Amino acid sequence: MASSDGSARPADGRRAGGGRTPAPSGGRPRAAGRALYGGLPEPGPPGFAPRVLELADELRREGLAIGTSELLDAFQALRELSWTSEEGFREALAATLAKSQEDRRVFELVFDRFFFRAVEREAVERGLREERFGGDGDRLPFDLDDLRERIREAVRGGSDGEMRDMARLAIAAFGRQGEGSGVIGVDVQRIRRSLDLRGEAGGRELPDPDAVPQDRLREFERHLRRELERALIERTQSLPPAKPLREFDRALPSGPLQDLAAVHRVVAQLKRRLATRSHAVGGRRRSAAVDVRRTMRASLETGGVPMRLRYRPRRPRRPELYVLCDVSTSVTSASVFFLSVLHALHDSFRKLRSFVFVERISEVTDVFERERSFAAISRAIATDAGVADVSGYTDYGRVWLEFLTEVMDDLDPRSSVIVLGDARTNGREPHAQAFARISERAGRTLWLNPEPRLYWNYGDSVISAYEPYCDGVFECWTTKQLEVFVNALAGGRAAPPVVTR
Amino acid sequence: MPDPAESVEAMRDGLEAVGYLAAESTALVSFLAAKLGKPVLVEGPAGVGKTELAKALARATSRKLIRLQCYEGLDEAKALYEWNYRKQLLRIQAGAGAGETGDEGWSGVHDDIFAQEFLLERPLMQAIASPEPVVLLIDEIDKTDQEFEAMLLEVLSDFQISIPELGVMEARSRPLVLLTSNNSRELTEALKRRCLYLWLDYPEVERELEIVRLHAPELAETVARKLVEVVHMVRGLDLKKPPSIAESIDWARALLMLGADDIDSSVFQRTMSIIVKHRTDLDVVAERVGVKLDDGVLGRLGTTG
To answer: Does residue B3 lie in a domain region?
Structure first.
């Protein structure tokens, strides 16, 4: 592979750039704003192999575990494929470098960004320019209403290429006022508004004839962003610095309700993991039943005389869980997520009792056992649980006291108590002593906080009052963090909960 | 027919010829697996045709399929090899009888009872020992424990098995290995490192339509399209068990047998147990999908797309 030289670079460009047409027309003189915008970063060594290594390096920075053996595989795979198909190139790299669904998603994002930048750099260096629609002539080939309609058509059912063309048309028509604002996100939204594009509402209102499907709209916005970025690079002759993927892209979709499906995907995975985790671990100690087959097999070492008995491994006992979930308004978005986590837990743990609380606490175990659909559960909890009393503000202190009277006698060292909440007491007495008594009786006490650690103990958050009594306090607003917690809950010590105070 | 290991296109055509419509990435990874001799780790939701892919590969390359179904507690005695201890005991006793005449020493017995003859070959061993190359399917690898995975490493990277009493058994032919996983637990890095990775997802409407039409060609196009759209809609709900591709095909065949020329709510009510197999799921589906069938929302979706 190392023998490939500069001749590979145009192939690179063709592969990743899609339908870009190199148009070496005179265009604008180069290097106008180079000094202003920082110009191009230093290029690495030329050739194909270094490009792939750079890509791997960027992937590593995003947390993919790519070893030398993966890279060797990748090069081996690329050798078997033709150079010209972008699809093949991308799939071959993905199959060898990204080894999980999560990794694959990161791979897609990084791959697009990396080769987009590589192509743009190449274009700037060679002075290639796009031909623009109606660039200098002030007048567009067709009128705006017609354009709106055509774009809407393309967004609804057009192919990727059509959408891209339409995005470029839209920028030509609406994006040129004063060369844009310079902030791409702002420009995208402005163009979307001028185009009068609306996503379909999820509710039961009458369908809007002009609305387009949400996901297609997002796709179109992605094209807009990309084309704007391309124009900006061309104008300034500089590449913007490569930012790491925003944590936002990977954060738990805890926002508005339309993301519920995404939450469910995360939870479904968690569910399956718990299903095997909770009994896959555990030892072969304190075994009782003799395994005849293994004993016979072992007896061969001693000439057929069973000197040592072999036992069947015994399955560890499942833990008993008590989950308390804050459903007040300060954690609205998170509680949707938490409720679905609860939902998942109910399928996996037989001995699970769930409680929701705002000002007071209410047991909802039977709701979860009765109802399958998540929507029905949230409705039942909202109407019947009776957790809000007067003000509707969370009162952690009172919740502990009530929890104690309700389940004190059932708590024993085998049970784990999990609290899902932000520990914002709205200035009321935290009753940390009551919490301490809960944690004394229970084997383990774990706390999941949906706020980033940065906000803990600011304002009315009193998490530090409870932290000493917990066996673990986790911040939980991304899938990664949730996994850390799941490992602690089910993977670490499932059988006898270990008290680590 | 060209050799499927010749190019990506040949692999795709080969798979199609045996009734498996492979997506671009599936054909590509299968081709790479055959070409590079690397195992493939296939992940995806239940019922997207992971196991079917292995079977199709075996048919397309005209190799024998050896299948190892994994489950909790699977150990090497069931997966790799086991000494046939009954036979060994018989041999020892026969030896003891003969030993009175004094012509058989300890070493003779020892060498003898740990010979090939007393070895019971289990799937992994079979795959490696086979003189003809085979397709080895290790199904639901995520059901086993990590110890088993560790044991697999030697087989998957070097295609050899160490038997303490016999030495190292090397592969006589290189099998095409597929491991499937439902992602119920994270597999170890070491295992992933040795595999190519393929994520299979439910196909798009168009592709699934092709699949259904391939397996139930007599079904009218409009009915088939509506069927696939309903299945996609059902998959969009939060069900205990979403319908698999095989179930769409079953449903198509059932409709053929019933002679249905349209899917309306009454047909759906009678036949939906083919795609939905949980008491609670049935209620959800009847409530959410059943009503939409009559107001003409479906069928229109596809024609615009």
So the answer is: no
